[in-house]
Amino acid sequence: MTDLSDTLDQKALDEALAVAHLPALLMSLIHMTGDASLLTQERRPQYVLLADGKLGGYSPEIQADIRARAKAAITAYMNGALLPPQPSPGTVRRMMDWIAGVDIPDQYADFLTDELHLDGVDNNAPDWSAPTLKAAAARLKVVVVGAGMSGILTGIRLKQAGIDFTIVEKNADAGGTWFENIYPGCRVDNPNHMYSYSFEPNDDFPQFYSTQPVLLDYFRRVTDRHALRDHIRFETTVEEAVFDEARGVWRVEVTTRDGGREVLEADALVTAVGQLNRPRYPDIPGLETFDGPSFHSSRWRHDVDLTGKRVAVIGTGASAFQFVPEIAPKVAHLDVYQRTPPWCLPGPTYHDDVPEGKKWLLKHVPFYGKWYRFWLFWMLTDGFIEAVKADEDWNGPPEAVGKVNAEMRALLAEALRAQAPDRQDLQEKIVPTYPLGGKRALVDNGVWVNALKRDNVELNTTGIEKITPSGVVTKDGVEHPADVMIFGTGFHASRFLWPMRIVGRDGVDLQTAWNGDARAYLGMTTPGFPNLFMLYGPNTNIVVNGSIIFFSECSVRYVVGALKLLAETGSQTMEVRKDVHDAFNVRVDAANAMMAWGSPNVTSWYKNATGRVSQNWPFPLVDYWNATVSPNPEDFILKAKVKAPA
Ligand code: NAP
After folding, report:
1. For ligand 1, what atom is nearest to the CA of residue 276?
2. Which mutation among 180, 300, 319, 608 tests ligand 1's pocket best, with the greatest number of atoms within 8 A of CB?
């Protein structure tokens, strides 16, 4: 590949155009030429389910035509031609329909226009420039718990609003899950050009699904670019937060780097601790008796050399799916203990580099990157949700929840079987019997089944009886020796905010109030806990539709809006009304019951000990976007200031 750098070389341009996402290129062509008549029926993309949409299903003639027109337009633009006036909102709306390949329902228009933000304006950046707000911001103090993806975002927004804040982070650096999960093969399983802040695109992601070091670097760089480090207390852990009713403030007790205790006071407490960072070890008899090294996937011990060892891996979820193919070639023997197989979605580019030409297009061609992200966003958000929804009158087998779900299941089951054509034994083990969408489906480029097919790997589905000092005994009484044991057994996801102790109004402990069944209004607020805002809280996880960064952007916009509401009304506290909270939860529960993950045929980390789906958002993303534009004052009990004026 020729080095394109910032110059324009015709051969290099041809190479770049050869790898272009043509529907996105067509959109940028309209920006560069001002010619909306390019939106002809023959240039309307036709996508094939689960296939790479890069070529838009275009005929070779149309592909060549788009490339030739783009080449001329890019050359003119790079030689200094000015862009014509930007397409009208009506044209942009048609362009959305075009690149999506379907007529996007009108209720999505505002939401998608915001996501696309062609004007380059970061619409969610708060504007607190009005003198009264400026003064109010200066009086506010917020404590944020966690400097992962959501905490960094909160810091950025609070800083933009001029609000004083401290982020308390237990780790030695920012990055959250990307700081902690350093297991071999760890990478994002959402396309990176979408798994990034909407206002911090990165044209240089080296791969379509970047690895953990790349993501950690991205979040660190964003932290630095927004100069957040001075606001972050690293290696400091929040032990408890108690709401001081008399003064209307949160008292946050932390353990500091040197082991001391300190109390921080804040008008509002924002938790940004994620759902997946407290390792869950399996409850298997004899676990503690194992003689060799053993560790959890999120506490990977790189000091334990696996070369030539007999290794036991327990669990086949998203983490094991990534590290098993990495360690399999190294070890002498690998036993993978599977309780339930994962569903997989074909993703041929999962480990692929982004071609240099594509990076060049992202960086230089006007609006190409925006439309590419928009395409990813549309295809991967609500486009898939119908396939995991239950039909009310479904009377087919319990392995599916509806007609579309059953059709998709058949397709994906076949895709899995086709990966092990001569291994009937493996085929029977790798195709799930629960409905597609019951658990997170994993992006599959074949390395998982290839690893399981290796001579030194055995996928064991017998069930574990016990662990002994020297290995694992399965339910058939067979003893499987192991030198090292790795737990890919997930996290205490439904124990939200645990192990922090959060005490709200009337001395009520949050965990006691929840009693193992965490609930919140829009995932963020809960009755009895004034000015407590949770990010990635109950019922805000997404299974098939989109990136959690999108959710965080919506939530943080809402939280900053809540602080604005306090400032504008001169209130000290806001607390969600119980009836509002309860009615919301009734709707959420009813909707979750109609999703694949709510099926009684599924057990997963999405359900808590009561069997309720406490993690997932069951509605389209657009509903969350709409619900979080700004808080509705009527949903809250607002209380006037109780603090003596400064
Ligand atoms: P997980 O999905 O909860 O998987 C845990 C695995 O351990 C499951 O296969 C589970 O089986 C098994 N397991 C648990 N207890 C067991 C026991 N006592 N005996 C045998 N097997 C047992 O955990 P994870 O893989 O760490 O992933 C958690 C979540 O993190 C994912 O769903 C995803 O949201 C996120 N994640 C994302 C990425 C990414 O973006 N690249 C990577 C990793 C993780 P059952 O299914 O039968 O319970």
Report:
1. 30
2. 319
List, in sequence order, every residue forming a beta bridge with 164; answer none if it has no partner: 141
pLDDT of residue 606: 97
- Quote the longest CA-to-CA distance of the chain: 77
- 273 closest CA partner among 514, 522, 540, 513: 540
* Cβ atoms of residues 505 and 575 within 8 Å: yes
Tell me: the pLDDT tens digits for 253-283? 999 999 999 999 999 999 999 999 999 999 9
Q: Which ligand 1 atom lies nearest to the CA of residue 603?
A: 48
Of 124, 252, 227, residue with least CA distance to 174: 227
Query: What are the distances in angstroms from CA 198 to CA 543, 551, 553?
Result: 20, 11, 8
Question: Ligand 1: which of 339, 447, 486 to mutate, judged by most atoms within 8 Å of the beta carbon?
Answer: 339
Strands 501-503 and 237-244, sheet pairing: parallel
- Give the C-alpha distances (Å, rounded to integers) separating 613 from 279, 440, 498, 622: 20, 14, 18, 20
- pLDDT value at residue 210: 96
Give pLDDT, residue 397. Answer: 94
Give the β-pairing of 232-233 and 164-168. Answer: parallel
Low-confidence residues in the chain, pLDDT < 50: 1-5, 645-646
Cα of 490 vs centre of ligand 1, distance in Å, is 4
* Res 3: pLDDT: 43
SS3 204: coil
Can you give the pLDDT at residue 646?
47
Q: What pLDDT score does 410 carry?
A: 96
* Ramachandran category for residue 252: left, alpha or beta (phi over 0 → left; psi -120 to 50 → alpha): beta
438's tokens = 């019951």
Record the pTM.
0.95
Distance, CA of 611 to CA of 251 (rounded, Å) = 34
Residue 98 Cα to ligand 1 middle (Å): 38
Is the separation of the CB atoms in 335 and 361 below 8 Å?
A: no
What's the rounded Cα separation, in Å, for the pair 464 and 335?
Answer: 12
Q: Which two tokens stand for residue 490?
A: 């997930």
C-alpha distance from residue 385 to each of 341, 403, 546 (Å): 21, 13, 10
Ligand 1 proximal residues by C-beta, below 6 Å: 187-189, 276, 282-284, 297, 314-320, 322, 337, 339-340, 440, 464, 488-490, 603, 605
CA of 621 to the centre of ligand 1 (A): 24
